[in-house]
Amino acid sequence: MAKTVRIDSINEETSVQTNDNLLSLLLTKELKVLQECGGRGICATCHIYIKDGMEQLSPMSRREQRTLEVITTCKMNSRLACQARVIGDGVVVDLPGGMYISEVEDIESLIGQRATQDILHPLYGTVLVETGKLITRSMISQLQQTRGEVSEVLSRAGNT
Ligand code: FES
Q1: What is the tally of helices (H) and strands (E) in the chain?
Q2: Does 141 have pLDDT greater than 90?
């Protein structure tokens, strides 16, 4: 049976099949969700806020709890979209602002530009470059290093 979910950031109410996760819903709405870890519950890139209806979602697993604990923008109403399944009506979802560093294809092209939005760490949600800041070459090498560390962490997690 279908359940209704509201996505606040695009001001849209929609329906999902009972037990579907919120990630698949966000993707059908063509919302930008990176799912860096491929839906395994170990990154920050599908982090969302539940503005209402938390009790209408599946309970949190230990893995989801552990991941949320390290996401710096985590709040009481945080969930990982890939882990939260819809079991009742009335869930209201909001997406955190900012973009993840892994979204930038040609990272070097950012040198000399100002960040148009916060650039975030894909595992911790930490702000790596604040909106409006001028992006320097040294920042870029740090960002590149971060990218390398992230892929290492994710591939290690994939082998466990
Ligand atoms: S896609 Fe990585 S935690 Fe959900």
Answers
A1: 3, 8
A2: yes
